[in-house]
Amino acid sequence: MKSKQIRLTSTSYAVMSLLELLGEATPYDLKRALEQSIENFWHVPHTTIYTEPTRLAAGGFLSEQQESGGRRRKLYALTDSGREALRAWADAPESEPPELRDEGMLKIFAGADPHTIFTNRRDWHQAKLTELEGLLESLRGAEGSIAHELDWTAEQRQSAEATVRFGTAYHRLLLELVESFRAGGPAGS
Amino acid sequence: MKSKQIRLTSTSYAVMSLLELLGEATPYDLKRALEQSIENFWHVPHTTIYTEPTRLAAGGFLSEQQESGGRRRKLYALTDSGREALRAWADAPESEPPELRDEGMLKIFAGADPHTIFTNRRDWHQAKLTELEGLLESLRGAEGSIAHELDWTAEQRQSAEATVRFGTAYHRLLLELVESFRAGGPAGS
DNA sequence: CTCCTATAGTTCGTGCCGAACTATACACAT
DNA sequence: ATGTGTATAGTTCGGCACGAACTATAGGAG
């Protein structure tokens, strides 16, 4: 009961959201689920996925139990306190404005050749788009997705789908934008 | 000459790019210049702007000299080693893929009302767009911009302009995207 | 039963970053 | 000239983030 005071970051809420969906999960489960959903708009490095649940458990937001044999994996689940914190956060209407970290633009600012940068960027968005389109299909019932593997309900799939749909739309737009700048850019304005 | 071994991050290059433009600057100069350019695609909190140059100086990439009177401000400039590192980085064609950190999408994933989130988001992009359009104009010669204050050459202005132009195009597109999702979204696909 | 490779998880050190605080400069009123 | 208010300029601290490198288990194929 005497939980350590910890700071809840967006990454904390990312982990808790997943646990709300999954019910109970090992860090590895979280990692896989993340890669197919949240990862597209909130990056979490894999080491953080292993340390963050430990932190959250110390704060009393997650319960932690360890397997006795084999890999001795840890299983995490939301506590009431965790569920409460998650809802309070999600229901607050204000959010931090989105933040973009774009090394390519930095290089252009530093004098790199825009054409090279934009060409790489175009290819990347194209690949990302293809990846997300595949993910979207697999979320809709095919095998191979985590949704299938974990036997998600229709509702759970929708939650993931909504964000992936936004992702495909986003990359489609960016692809065009980058392409137009690559071709010389809206030079005048 | 015996410089400490430090790791150069994107933030390091952001600082060094600015110093290449400014020639010589105090952390505060850097801060102001950042806000009108790099900040839009690479966030650097203000405390980092004060600590990063110190790190870079320890690594031998910047020279540091301190005023004797008044605020005892520190003046930084690129060393040859810094200029070299900057060029090597900018000239390497590959960049890290852009990373988006979007708390609003996280909330939607966690079950928040999309309409609320997208409405806030729309307003934010609108404000950002207006801000960047103003910045673009002021970069083109008006008073009040850092370009004017520091008496930038046409070339220096262009460097800043290129990224700001991309920024305006970006926010214009996002504004539309968000608006369409707000209105119910491309529901089917 | 041993080697291979994929899967699963940890450690460490440096860098990042927000909150809170401190200090200087300058304008203008008393 | 002295106070007082506000914008400007800079620092400290502690917790969190994150990449590199490493370790360990599982499930094959031979």
Oligomeric status of the shown chains? homodimer
Shape of chain A: globular
Spans of chain A of at least 5 consecutive residues whose pLDDT stays below 50 are: none
pLDDT average of chain A, as an integer?
87
Q: Indicate the structural class of chain A.
A: mainly alpha
Biggest sheet of chain A: strands, sense, closure? 2 strands, antiparallel
Number of helices of chain A: 8
Q: How many strand segments of chain A?
A: 3
Helix content of chain A: 55-70%
Overall description:
The structure is a homodimer of 189-residue chains. Chain A contains 8 helices and 3 strands. Chain A has a two-stranded antiparallel sheet with strand order 1-2. Chain A is mainly alpha-helical and 189 residues long. Chains A and B meet through helix 1, helix 4, strand 3, helix 5 and helix 6 of A and helix 1, helix 4, strand 3, helix 5 and helix 6 of B. Strand 3 of chain A pairs antiparallel with strand 3 (99-101) of chain B, so a sheet runs across the interface. The structure holds a DNA duplex (30 and 30 nucleotides).
In short:
By secondary structure, chain A is mainly alpha-helical. Chain A is 60% helix and 7% strand.
What does the secondary structure layout of this molecule look like, with pairings?
The structure is a homodimer of 189-residue chains.
Chain A: H1 10-22, H2 27-35, H3 46-58, E1 62-66, E2 74-78, H4 80-91, E3 99-101, H5 103-109, H6 114-139, H7 146-149, H8 154-182
Antiparallel strand pairs in A: 1-2
Helix pairs in contact in A: 1-4, 2-3, 5-6, 6-8
Chain A binds a DNA duplex (30 and 30 nucleotides) through residues 6-7, 9, 11, 26-28, 31, 44-48, 50-52, 55, 70-74.
